Each structure stands twice: as structure tokens, then as C-alpha cells.
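Renewal narrative, Specific Aim 1. Our central claim is that a sequence can be written position by position from structural information alone. The example that follows is taken directly from our test logs and has not been curated for this report. It begins with the C-alpha cells describing the chain, in the order in which they were read.
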């Protein structure tokens, strides 16, 4: 509670009266002494002088005390420093009085007339709402000391009050410090971080993206009547988007993407006649796309991706005559695509990826000839894709993962395409489309699982801008054309798995210095791996499994230091694992199973600390004693703390299961079956492996009693029941 200046004035008067009475008493006593002295005729001039000096001193002292008392009453000796706590919130303690209580009352009464919820906003002083904190700060700590009493002479002062209050509610509602708080809670708000004003000091733009703002959007942001652009994207805002946005008549851009907003959109978008760009993507919004959006004819860009909208797309979307971009990927949209989208003459970008849209794409969409990018992937569209044939301006087309049928789309009029993804559909079997070889701007080609036949055309080598080629799961035959592949020097991903390719892997593959992923699994390729492949130092995934490659792994394999996946299983490779394998310290998966590798497993394999899957099984062949890993299991494997699957089955390994492997806290499958020279018992500390699901030890000489807790935690133990005493074992005699 703040002192009343009127009461303080009364205290000053009483105090002054006290000093006057005291002075009079002193003078009276002096008069008595003077009478006595006159009787004795002993008064000197010096005594009179002392008396007059004393009176003057007392009078001056009274004047000084009055000045000091008035100064304290008017707060003339208080500093104007902000009384803000460390977290930027207004303190609930008493504030130093910068202004009179009358100004504070006027400020409160004026704001009640303009804020969104009226007097109700300030009725609960205990809860310290953001609005109440903003009001108290403006009343008692704001260095601007704005006062609505000047409104009759200076109307500009009123919008300064309203806009300052609106911005302060955004500040005080946040639960944590912002990343960048430059100049907030200082002088004029036009210098505050993220705030842009016009010549009249009215806020026109707010850009506070990526600033870790938490809480909810305050309704009173609507007081910013001249706001044109609001960008609060990439923050931690949550809750319902305030309905007061409907009052922002001049707003042209609203970016609230990458937050945690939820519930349905409740504000009336049609009341925002200037809105041009709306981005609500990457939130948790739900319900239907509001019909008011279809009446906002000024809008040209709508982004609703990655929410939980569950509705169909209304035919009324055809009313948005200025629409240029509409994206609603990764929602729960259903129904068909409205044909009226084709009537939007300015539509350039349409993306509805990963929804539940069905049916044939109506021919009306074929009239959207201005489309530059179209993404309908991962839905359940059916019928022929003829609707794209007239879209001559396309640069991006993705129709993959649908149920489209008939012939491949005729794109001979769309030779400017840069990305073409039409894989995983039910198209008729046909040869590689010739028109694709004329798309000189093509960088991303996805023709996987569409029943392609024939060979890889030699002219594909002329598409030198290609970065991604995916021809998986077709019926392509023949060899990999050396000259054509070697010319694709921009390639980062080459995947032709599950076809009928034969012959050798050409040495020209080594010229693809940017190659990150090479997947040729499940073909009939033969011969040794070209030495040039080990010079592809950008490789992250090398997958050559299920072919007929022969030869050995060279020591130079250790140069592929970016490698995360090495899968060369099911070939006819032989020899030892080079010690340099330990240099591949980014490996997540190593699969050398179903080959003819032999010799001991390198002890330094434990250096692969990020490894999740280690598969070295089934390298044994009784036709040759050099086939199959031998020696003991390296103790260092126990240091691969993130290992989830270990398969060493069907080799010539001897010795025991190392107790050090009891440290593999994430292992789910531990398989040493088929190593008849292994002996010993199940380590007792295997009961401490919380994720262990399968322990496979049949066709070994491991014996003894299985630790009872292994059964109690649900581990499946596959063993020879004649050697292991176990109540939960699966017998593989």
C-alpha cells in the first residue's frame, strides 16, 4: 500500500507546530530571565546579540525541515531505477513512488476501457497476471511515466500507453528469460529487440522468432492496431491462439509456426482483410480448417503442415483467388482434392503429403497450369496420373506412395522439372521413360517400385546435375553402365537395390567423390569390389549385401571414416577382418554375415563405441577350415556400451562367454550358437542386462544351471536342454 500525500501533509503541519511551540517556550523562559536581570541591571550587548543569533538559527532550521518533508512527500529524492526481479518479472513488494497515486489511478481506469477483458483483467491482485504486472510496472517503475490525463491535448499519448501495455503483457507472460532481451523495459519501445515502428512511433512489425518465448499469446496484443507483421515462430508458446487476432485489421503476415499451440483455430480470419501470409505449421492444432479462412480473399500463402487437422478440404478454397501457396502436409486430412483448386489461376505450390486423401485426382486440377510444385505423396490416390500432363511449369513433382495405376505420367511438356518422385505406385510395366533423359535440370529422381523393365539407359550420364537416383525394386536388367555412372559426379545417393543387375561394379564408381549412400543390395553382381570404392571418403552407407562379390577387405577400408552402415552380408568374401576396421568409429551397423571370413575377430573391435548392431554370423563352411572366425570372443566387445544385437553364430569360436559382456546394458539379442568349441556357463551377471530378450547358445558346449532370474525377467534362452538346467529354455536338440 502506498502512502497518501494528503496524510503526509497533515503530519508535516503537526510537526511544524511542535517546533513553533517549543521555540515559544524557549523565548518565554528567556523573557523571565531578562526581567530578573533588569532588576539587577546586568544585561550586556553581547547577550542580546547571542539571543538574536539563536532565534535566526532556529527559524532557518524550521525552514530546512519543512523543505525536506515536502521533498519526501513528493518523491523528489527517489531514484527512477526499475524495480525488476532477476527473472524480469515485476516485484510484488512495495514500489518507490515515481508518480502520484492519481496518475496511477488514471492509467488503470484508462486501460480498463481499451483492453480485451476490461476491468476483469485487474480484479485479482494475488495471481499477478501478466496484465496486472504490466499495469503496475507502468504505474510505478516505467521511466516514461505516461499519463492519460494529457489525452485532451495529445492524442498520441494514448496509443503510446496502449502499445506499451500490449508489449509488456507479452514480456510478463513468459515463464523464462528470452534469449535476446536487448533494451526491453528501458525507454521507448521502438528500440526494444524485435520491435519496428513507423515515423509516428507506432509498432508495425514484431519479429521475435527463435527467442525461447514461453507461455501463451496475450489477448491484448490486439491493441497494436497498426501492426503489419507478427513473427513469433520457433518459440515455446502454447495453448489456444487468442481470439483477439480478429481485431488486427491491418495485419498482413502472421507467423506462429514451430510452437506448441493446440485446440481449434477460434479467431475469425475473415475479419483480417489484409492478411496475406499465414503460417501455423508445426504445432498441435486440431479440428477443422476454419471456414473463415476461405473468406479471407486477400490471403496468398497458407501453411498448416504438421498439425492434427481432421477434416476434408472444402470446395470453398476456390474462393481464395489470390492464393499462391497452400501446404497441409502431415495432418489427418481425408476425402478428395476439390476440383476448384484448378480454378486458382495464381496457384504455384500445393503440398498435401502424408494425409488420408483418397479417390481419383479430379481432372479439374489439370487446369492449375501455374503450379510449380505439387506434392501428393503418401496418400491413397487411385487412377491414372493424367492430371499432371498439362502442368508445363512444374519444377517439383512427388506422387510417390499412392495407388496410382495405368501408364507413367506424360511429362514431356514439363522438362524443367528438378525433382521427380513417382515411386511406389501400381503403374503398368514399361521401359525407362525417354522424356526423363531430356530433363537437364533434374537433381532428384525417384522411380522405385514402379515395374520398370529394360536396362539403365546410357544417356542418363548426361544428367550431370543428378544428386539422388533411386531405382529400387524394379525389374531392371543388364549391367551398370560404367561411363554413364562415372559421369554423374554430383551424385550423393545411388540406390538400385532389388533388381536383376549383373556383371561387375565398375571402377568408375570411384569418381563419385560426393557419394554418401551406395545401395546395390539384392542383385546378381559379381567379381571383386573395385579398389576405387575405398576412396569414397564421403560414404556414410555402403550396402552391397545379397550379391556374389568375391575377394577380401583391404586395409584401406579404414579410410572411410564417415561410414555409419557397412553391410556386405551374403556374398562370397573371404579373408580376415583388417585391424583398420577400428578406425571406423562412427559405425552404427557392421554386417559381415553369410560370407567366408576367417581368422580371429580383431581385439580392437571394441573401439567401435557407437556400434548398435554387430553381425558376424554364419561364416563357417566345413569344406574349408579357413572359413569361419576362430579364437575367443574379444573381451573389448564389452566396451561397446550401446550394442543392441550381437550375432557370432556358426563360426569356429572357442572359449567362454566373457563376463565383461555383462556390461552390455542395451543388448537385446546375444547369439553364439553353432560354435561347438565354446564351453563354460552363462555368466551370472547376465541377469543385470535389463533389455536382454534372446540368449541363443544351442550347438555349443555351454552347460550348467541357467541363472533363475533370467527366466523371471522373460529372457528366451535357446539351448540344448541336455546341457543346461533351465525352467524357461527353448530346446534345440
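The sequence written for that structure reads:
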Amino acid at each position: 500500500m502506498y502512502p497518501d500525500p494528503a496524510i503526509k501533509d497533515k503530519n508535516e503541519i503537526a510537526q511544524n507546530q511542535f517546533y513553533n511551540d517549543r521555540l515559544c517556550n524557549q523565548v518565554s523562559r528567556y523573557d523571565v530571565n531578562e526581567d530578573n536581570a533588569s532588576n539587577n541591571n546586568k544585561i550586556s550587548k553581547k547577550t542580546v546579540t547571542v539571543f538574536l543569533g539563536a532565534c535566526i538559527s532556529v527559524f532557518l532550521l524550521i525552514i530546512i525541515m519543512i523543505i525536506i518533508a515536502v521533498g519526501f512527500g513528493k518523491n523528489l529524492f527517489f531514484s527512477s531505477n526499475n524495480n525488476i526481479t532477476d527473472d524480469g518479472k515485476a516485484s510484488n513488494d512495495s514500489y518507490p513512488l515515481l508518480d502520484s497515486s492519481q496518475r496511477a489511478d488514471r492509467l488503470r481506469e484508462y486501460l480498463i476501457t481499451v483492453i480485451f477483458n476490461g476491468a476483469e483483467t485487474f480484479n485479482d491482485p494475488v495471481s499477478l497476471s501478466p496484465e496486472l504486472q504490466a499495469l503496475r510496472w507502468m504505474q510505478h517503475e516505467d521511466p516514461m511515466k505516461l499519463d492519460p490525463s494529457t489525452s485532451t491535448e495529445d492524442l498520441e499519448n494514448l496509443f503510446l500507453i496502449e502499445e506499451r501495455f500490449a508489449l509488456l503483457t507479452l514480456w510478463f507472460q513468459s515463464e523464462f528469460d528470452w534469449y535476446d532481451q536487448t533494451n526491453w523495459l528501458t525507454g521507448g519501445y521502438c528500440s526494444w529487440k524485435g520491435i519496428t515502428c513507423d515515423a509516428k512511433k507506432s509498432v508495425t512489425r514484431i519479429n521475435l522468432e527463435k527467442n525461447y518465448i514461453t507461455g501463451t499469446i496475450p489477448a491484448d496484443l490486439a491493441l497494436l492496431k497498426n501492426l503489419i507483421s507478427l513473427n513469433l515462430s520457433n518459440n515455446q508458446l502454447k495453448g489456444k491462439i487468442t481470439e483477439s487476432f480478429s481485431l488486427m485489421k491491418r495485419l498482413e503476415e502472421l507467423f506462429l509456426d514451430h510452437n506448441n499451440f493446440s485446440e481449434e483455430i477460434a479467431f475469425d480470419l475473415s475479419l483480417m482483410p489484409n492478411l496475406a501470409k499465414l503460417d501455423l505449421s508445426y504445432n498441435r492444432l486440431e479440428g477443422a480448417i476454419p471456414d473463415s479462412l476461405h473468406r479471407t480473399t486477400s490471403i496468398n500463402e497458407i501453411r498448416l503442415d504438421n498439425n492434427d487437422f481432421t477434416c476434408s478440404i472444402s470446395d470453398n478454397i476456390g474462393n481464395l483467388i489470390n492464393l499462391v501457396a497452400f501446404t497441409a502436409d502431415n495432418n489427418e486430412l481425408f476425402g478428395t482434392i476439390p476440383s476448384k483448386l484448378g480454378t486458382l489461376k495464381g496457384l504455384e505450390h500445393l503440398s498435401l503429403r502424408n494425409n488420408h486423401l483418397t479417390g481419383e485426382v479430379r481432372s479439374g486440377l489439370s487446369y492449375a497450369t501455374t503450379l510449380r510444385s505439387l506434392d501428393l505423396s503418401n496418400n491413397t490416390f487411385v487412377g491414372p496420373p493424367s492430371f499432371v500432363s498439362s502442368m508445363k511449369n512444374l519444377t517439383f513433382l512427388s506422387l510417390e506412395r499412392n495407388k496410382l495405376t495405368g501408364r507413367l505420367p506424360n511429362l514431356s511438356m514439363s522438362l524443367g522439372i528438378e525433382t521427380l518422385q513417382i515411386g511406389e505406385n501400381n503403374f503398368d510395366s514399361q521401359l525407362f521413360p525417354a522424356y526423363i533423359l531430356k530433363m537437364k535440370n533434374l537433381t532428384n529422381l525417384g522411380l522405385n517400385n514402379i515395374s520398370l523393365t529394360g536396362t539403365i539407359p546410357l544417356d542418363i550420364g548426361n544428367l550431370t546435375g543428378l544428386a539422388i537416383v533411386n531405382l529400387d525394386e524394379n525389374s531392371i536388367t543388364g549391367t551398370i553402365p560404367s561411363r554413364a555412372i562415372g559421369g554423374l559426379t554430383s551424385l550423393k545417393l545411388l540406390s538400385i537395390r532389388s533388381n536383376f543387375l549383373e556383371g561387375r561394379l565398375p571402377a568408375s564408381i570411384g569418381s563419385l567423390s560426393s557419394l554418401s549412400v551406395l545401395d546395390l543390395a539384392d542383385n546378381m553382381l559379381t567379381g571383386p569390389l573395385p579398389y576405387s570404392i575405398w576412396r569414397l571418403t564421403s560414404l556414410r552407407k555402403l550396402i552391397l549385401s545379397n550379391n556374389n562379390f568375391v575377394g577380401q577387405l583391404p586395409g584401406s577400408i579404414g579410410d572411410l571414416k564417415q561410414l555409419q552402415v557397412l553391410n556386405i552380408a551374403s556374398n562370397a568374401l573371404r579373408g580376415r577382418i583388417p585391424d583398420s576396421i577400428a578406425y571406423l568409429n562412427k559405425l552404427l551397423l557392421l554386417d559381415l554375415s553369410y560370407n567366408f571370413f576367417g581368422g580371429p575377430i580383431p581385439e580392437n573391435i571394441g573401439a567401435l563405441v557407437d556400434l548398435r548392431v554387430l553381425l558376424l554370423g554364419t561364416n563357417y563352411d566345413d569344406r574349408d577350415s579357413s572359413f569361419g572366425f576362430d579364437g575367443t570372443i574379444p573381451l573389448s566387445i564389452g566396451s561397446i556400451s550401446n550394442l543392441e544385437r550381437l550375432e557370432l553364430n556358426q563360426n569356429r569360436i572357442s572359449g567362454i562367454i566373457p563376463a565383461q559382456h555383462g556390461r552390455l546394458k542395451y543388448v537385446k539379442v546375444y547369439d553364439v550358437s553353432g560354435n561347438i568349441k565354446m564351453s563354460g556357463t552363462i555368466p551370472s551377471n547376465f541377469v543385470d542386462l535389463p533389455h536382454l530378450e534372446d540368449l541363443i547358445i544351442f550347438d555349443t558346449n555351454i552347460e550348467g544351471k541357467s541363472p533363475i532370474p533370467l527366466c523371471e525377467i522373460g529372457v528366451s534362452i535357446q539351448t540344448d536342454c541336455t546341457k543346461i538346467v533351465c525352467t524357461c529354455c527353448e530346446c534345440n536338440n
